[in-house]
Amino acid sequence: MNNVQMLQEPMTAISTAIKPIELYIFVDPLCPEAFGMQAVLRKLQLEYNHYFTWRFVLSTELTSLNSLSTRTKGCISGIELDINHPVLPSIAIKAAELQGKRAGARYLNKLQEYVLLNYQDVNSYATLLKIAEEVQLDMAEFTVDFGSKEAARAFQCDLYIKREMEVDEVPSIVFFNECIEDEGLKVGGNYAYEVYEEILQEMLDIQLISQPLPSIEELFAKYQTLSTNEVAFIYSMTEQAAERELKKRMLLQKIERIQTDHATLWRAK
Questions:
Q1: Which family does the UniProt entry place this protein in (predicted)?
Q2: Is the CB of residue 26 less than 8 Å from the CB of residue 162?
């Protein structure tokens, strides 16, 4: 690995008193490269979540934040202003996280699904509200948090952490152990799953014990939407074998198929 660096844990670090490893996962929620790492992250969580805690650090490209635009659309009550800006998805994710880490992760996953399907503008405030409804957030709370200083500050904190750690490639993962004096290990870019396993094992200095993988039905209960490639990757099978298993469940009306130009997605019904 050429893009690996040692660095200090930031002042805003989360306690790792229960689990010995902390992962800082730097992602641009609108970048296609984030989708490439998603299967690796999900498999790591499924097999080794008992060893680490994690947090997403949003790393929206600042060059894309200079093109503020607004658009108006008609509605029954008159003219409704629908703000449209590349920073809004990141603010929405931080607003969702104020309802808990799992709520934030659900929101991020659904947002990325929208980006992949490319059927609605995720820079639109109206679309971001719709995503919040779909992942069953408290809408009154989300609407208030979306416009709050807390959500804006949380996003600014992510950008600060990105600068402090000198993360210049997205996606990146930074590994910290429970000893605050030790340096973290920064890994920029996408690598094979075995590389991340090896890093965990070296940092823990023990033989890793993986948790058993869930059934496909349990997997969809956890993640709702997955690609054929993700299912194949998680279960170490060919895409053809994964598609056969998924089609069986589609015929049983447990999942539905969504075809895009870039991938085949499957969604729990």
A1: Belongs to the SpxH family.
A2: yes
CA distances from 135 to 70, 130, 148 (A): 26, 9, 20
Per-domain residue ranges of the chain? 1-59+167-210, 67-143, 216-268
Which sign, positive or negative, has the C-alpha torsion 220, 222, 227, 230?
negative
- Topology adopted by domain 216-268: Arc Repressor Mutant, subunit A (1.10.10)
We find that the CATH architecture of domain 1-59+167-210 is 3-Layer(aba) Sandwich (3.40)
* DSSP character at residue 181: T
Q: Which residue has the tokens 């299967």?
A: 39
How many angstroms separate the CA atoms of 260 and 183, rounded?
Answer: 42
Amino acid at 208: L
Residues 206-231: tens digit of each pLDDT: 899 999 999 999 999 999 899 999 99
Tens digit of each residue's pLDDT (9 = 90 or more) over 113-154: 888 887 788 999 999 999 999 999 999 999 999 999 999 999
- Residue whose tokens read 């709520």: 103
Q: Which has the closest alpha carbon to 28: 60, 4, 57?
A: 60
Q: How far apart are CA 253 and CA 64, in angstroms?
A: 41
In this structure, are residues 263 and 254 in contact, taking their beta carbons and an 8 Å threshold? no
Pair type for strands 225-227 and 78-84:
unpaired
Per-residue model confidence as pLDDT tens digits over 31-67: 766 777 889 999 999 999 999 999 999 987 655 444 4
Please give the backbone phi and psi of residue 268, each rounded to the nearest 5 degrees, phi first. -65, 140
